[in-house]
Design brief:
Oligomer: single chain
Largest sheet: none
Radius of gyration: 24 Å
Number of helices: 11
Order of helices and strands: HHHHHHHHHHH
CATH superfamily of one domain: MetI-like
CATH class of one domain: Mainly Alpha
Structural class: mainly alpha
Strand content: under 5%
Length: 335
């Protein structure tokens, strides 16, 4: 397992480099000019100096190389300086947003807590709901609960967030007035009452994201449980006199979790992608809204960095899923 993990880590480095290069070259082909929003009163020579300051006058490969150095050499030094009070990155040029003229990573770090509040909570809620539903649906196959769960989860998986978001706003915010329709990103949790306000404004975006998570994972959980409930080792365990709870919740559940772990691990980057739409619907000032804003402003450094973070999440959680395979099933050997 250790050999496999090291080999996968070594393979992930060129993979991420290739992905980052592909993203960069695609962004170079995108139409638009970051200097288009500059007022017409600005003289042409001033515009040219601004372009050079933004690195727009250099060849694409040089720009990509500078981004790599800034992202993987200078930004880690900035983090070390922040943690230990050193000055390794002092005076060095970081990845700068064309839109805000401030370091890209500083903006991303400011937005991450808002995204984690919504995305992280929705994923946890979705998993906690989906796994029991999948287990009970498989154990009571073709029951009213199973058929109702199948119908509801299929609807939840088929309806996209850009439809469920406004629908929930109309029902619970406009008609009933139970929850706010706009997420207040300036709200700070300091006591119990402020925590209740934070929880109240999180309910709608969490419901939108958790709906698809629950629908997808519960279907995989049900299918995996049904496959294992008919195996010989289940009949053997029952013949030994083990209780039904031990058979289902220990033996069957552990083997059924192997394929579901892959879905859960690989679904984390996907839920961040779904958050792009949800954050814009509910005005959550997170990573998703940051990416959309950067795309409209043609802010290539910001788009490049955020897209690379998404790619990094996909590669990382692929590795985590493969490692967890071996943890859950000792029969799996990668050496």
């Amino acid at each position: 397992m250790l050999t496999f993990t090291i080999r996968r880590l070594a393979l992930s480095i060129p993979t991420l480099l290739f992905i980052s290069f592909a993203i960069f070259m695609l962004l170079q082909l995108a139409p638009g000019d970051p200097m288009a929003q500059v007022p017409l009163t600005v003289p042409p020579e001033v515009k040219q100096k601004m372009r050079e300051a933004l690195g727009l006058g250099e060849p694409p490969l040089i720009q990509f190389w500078k981004w790599l150095v800034q992202m993987f050499w200078i930004e880690p030094q900035v983090f070390i300086d922040y943690m230990f009070g050193t000055s390794f990155a002092e005076g060095k040029l970081r990845v700068i947003s064309w839109q805000t003229r401030s370091p890209v990573m500083d903006i991303i770090v400011q937005r991450i807590p808002q995204t984690l509040w919504v995305v992280g909570m929705s994923y946890v809620v979705g998993i906690l709901i989906a796994i029991p539903i999948g287990i009970y649906s498989a154990y009571r196959q073709y029951s009213i609960f199973d058929q109702s769960g199948t119908f509801i989860t299929m609807i939840g998986f088929s309806i996209p967030p850009f439809f469920t978001g406004p629908l929930l706003i109309v029902i619970f915010s406009v008609q009933l007035g139970w929850f706010p329709s706009i997420y207040d990103t300036t709200h700070v949790v300091t006591d119990w009452s402020s925590f209740k306000v934070q929880l109240n404004q999180m309910i709608l975006p969490v419901m939108v994201l958790a709906l698809q998570t629950t629908a997808q994972i519960s279907r995989y959980m049900r299918a995996a449980m049904l496959d294992n409930l008919n195996q010989d080792y289940v009949r053997t365990a029952r013949a030994k006199g083990l209780s039904e709870a031990v058979v289902v919740m220990v033996h069957v559940l552990r083997n059924s979790m192997i394929p579901v772990i892959t879905v859960i691990a690989l679904g984390i980057p996907a839920i961040f992608g779904g958050a792009i739409i949800t954050e814009n619907v509910f005005k959550v000032n997170g990573i998703g809204q940051l990416l959309i804003t950067a795309l409209f402003a043609n802010d290539l450094p910001m788009v490049m960095t955020v897209s690379f973070i998404f790619a990094f999440l996909i590669v990382t959680f692929n590795l985590i899923a493969d490692v967890l395979y071996g943890v859950l099933d000792p029969r799996i050997r990668y050496d």
